[in-house]
Amino acid sequence: MEEFLDKLPQMDLMRSEKMTLVQLIIPVESAHRSITYLGELGLLQFRDLNADKSPFQRTFANQVKRCGEMSRKLRFFKDQIDKAGLRCSPRLEIEPDIALGDLERQLADHEHEVLEMNSNSEKLRQTYNELLEFKIVLEKASGFLVSSNTHAIGEEIELHESTYSNNGFIETASLLEQEMNPGHSNQSGLRFISGIINKDKLLKFERMLFRATRGNMLFNQTTSDEEIMDPSTSEMVEKVVFVVFFSGEQARTKILKICEAFGANCYPVPEDTTKQRQLTREVLSRLSDLEATLDAGTRHRNNALNSVGYSLTNWITTVRREKAVYDTLNMLNFDVTKKCLVGEGWCPTFAKTQIHEVLQRATFDSSSQVGVIFHVMQAVESPPTYFRTNKLTNAFQEIIDAYGVARYQEANPAVYSVVTYPFLFAVMFGDWGHGLCLLLGALYLLARERKLSTQKLGSFMEMLFGGRYVILLMALFSIYCGLIYNEFFSVPFHIFGGSAYKCRDTTCSDAYTVGLIKYRDPYPFGVDPSWRGSRTELPYLNSLKMKMSILLGIAQMNLGLILSFFNARFFGSSLDIRYQFIPQMIFLNSLFGYLSLLIIIKWCTGSQADLYHVMIYMFLSPTEELGENELFWGQRPLQIVLLLLAFIAVPWMLFPKPFALRKIHMERFQGRTYGVLVSSEVDLDVEPDSARGGGHHEEEFNFSEIFVHQLIHSIEFVLGSVSNTASYLRLWALSLAHSELSTVFYEKVLLLAWGYENILIRLIGVAVFAFATAFILLMMETLSAFLHALRLHWVEFMGKFFNGDGYKFKPFSFALISDDDE
């Protein structure tokens, strides 16, 4: 039998792959190459044998630090290239492998060059901005200055006139009064300061000047025609030219300090027109020279960034790989005396041959005199869980793993969820019109699969793309269930032939409410279209969907119990089969399996029996005659037997297993049977943190704890059988809600608007119907049905057999390195 099982093909999804704990003893000269080749293979998960050491105490901490510094420089180059708006496609030809030291020197030289160019460019840009501001001030301020001899001021903007009095006499005359009085003006001396300031600071700047000078100033402003680039942010800033007229040295000092505080740049503007023109020509000449210098510097900087950009992708990949290799080397124990590194890890059993070949190739390529020692170890701890998935099954496996990673080699719910999950979703979402919309979306994602897989998507789009096959199956099952419900945007169609009902009288005018009779065989597939709009439509569909929900729920819960049997059989736990699986199956099917049987018989016979009455009085009066509620001969004695079996199953679940475990424990330590001895001696070759060392010891047997645990488990199953069956009624509730919402939007929006002759009202009705269909029925209802199907699988189905206390197999693989690992 064992030979037959060994010849079977490897299981991809039913149970996780068989794992093996291996030990590697790698010579120092071939360690780096060996780890690199294992990273390319991606089938070995290393254990951290230096968990008690900090990152700075590990052997290769300096190399990791160097890789981190190179990653920083590469991110700097990438930011500079993006900031410059360059698109540097990587070279197509394969570049030779570059040593880490050479790459480090190249990156340092490139960074120094780029930083120096940035510094020079920033200084030149600052000088250019100052000259540009000076030119703008010269052009705008000259309009406020006519002649220094007459002190005439054109285009005045007077803010306010204010006098400050003390003890009844005027202390300070306003600037305007000084200007009107020539004698006083000559004594005080009228002066001005011109400059430029950011437009968003202008109002506060003007108010501060007014308060500091107590209103003894004239403030003139005009908007600049050109925007000026801020060298620190590279954003264009709108600025305003100002001229402040004042009197006195103290006012001048205050104004200059305020200008400095607000970041306003002040520039001297001569009052003589000739000097203004001469100064403007000089500024324009220097601006022209600076523009040419800036353009040349930008071209040189872009050329330097382009030369970096061609190799940037390869360099980033190289540095990430090197950092990952050294991080992995830090997980190995370094033996100075033997000049070798010792490591342990998990690998799938089928990968041992590949790993051995890779290590032999690494020894040959590194010209090492000593080969890598690779041997299998006996493990005490539980191995990691590894499922080989494809594009279709990966999304369903991720849904299961979101609840919990399967224990090593226990039954995998993802296999069954590939079918049951989209089907239960479709039961709640059944409408083949809406299903077609989902199908179009899924086909769009599949058609652009190759392109979207290489792009960086947003979080929502990435989620949709990752679940594209889930959406595809949900759409197909929704079309199937929609055809059964005979709903296309809530409208029934005669797809599979004519209705089985017709009007009793050809003169009846209200054929959908009265007078319908059955005149031929039932509608061949799905719900007869004549039910739509009839008086019994809602009771009929309610009864159909409610009973169907119970049948689907009992079937899926039985599937979960059957999987628990296969788990117990696989792990050799006969106690779980005898004292857990058998009583649970008896209890569940004695009550709810019997209810499912009654539903099927009622459908097949067309009986009018009240199933509520049958189930209630099965507990209240099991010996009472059923009367008209009897569905088959011998139903009453069968009910009594099933009720007795259900009552027997409860103590069967509760008591035997704890006492059986206690008996096994007592026999083991009284010498009647002997288990596998666990040696207390630790082999000297075993590493302190290895899976063999681990400090394994026999756990103390605590009968009270086991009994309480079994009690909780039994009560949970008994109560859960009722609550879980009721939970499956959400299939009926959400299906009904989806159907009624579709009907409301169709009849009360689209048909109502179409009843008007006004084309505008019709267009509004179509728009509202399309919006409601897209955002409420296709988005909100899809999300609702998705989450409810998720709950039914996580709780009602997986709760019957799934432990979910394993941990994922995370091999060292270059393909799994992400941007966040930097």
Low-confidence stretches: 147-188, 672-698
Question: How many β-strands, per DSSP?
Answer: 17
Mean pLDDT: 83
Give helix % range.
55-70%
Largest pleated sheet: 5 strands, antiparallel
Rounded to the nearest angstrom, the distance between the terminal CA atoms is: 50 Å
Keywords: Coiled coil, Hydrogen ion transport, Ion transport, Membrane, Transmembrane, Transmembrane helix, Transport
Family: Belongs to the V-ATPase 116 kDa subunit family.
Subcellular location: Membrane
Main location: membrane
Structure characteristics:
822 residues, alpha+beta, Alpha-Beta Plaits, five-stranded antiparallel beta sheet, V-type_ATPase_116kDa_su_euka, proton-transporting ATPase activity, rotational mechanism, membrane, V-type proton ATPase subunit a, ion transport
How does the SSE layout of this entry go?
Blueprint: H1 2-7, E1 19-27, H2 28-41, E2 45-46, H3 61-84, H4 100-141, E3 145-147, E4 152-153, E5 165-166, E6 169-170, H5 175-180, H6 182-188, E7 190-198, H7 202-212, E8 218-223, E9 228-229, E10 236-237, E11 239-247, H8 249-261, E12 265-266, H9 273-329, E13 333-335, E14 340-348, H10 352-365, E15 373-377, H11 391-403, H12 414-429, H13 432-447, H14 449-452, H15 459-466, H16 468-485, E16 501-503, E17 516-518, H17 537-570, H18 574-605, H19 611-620, H20 635-654, H21 656-669, H22 703-727, H23 730-754, H24 759-797
GO molecular function, one term: proton-transporting ATPase activity, rotational mechanism
Function: Essential component of the vacuolar proton pump (V-ATPase), a multimeric enzyme that catalyzes the translocation of protons across the membranes. Required for assembly and activity of the V-ATPase.
Pfam families: V_ATPase_I
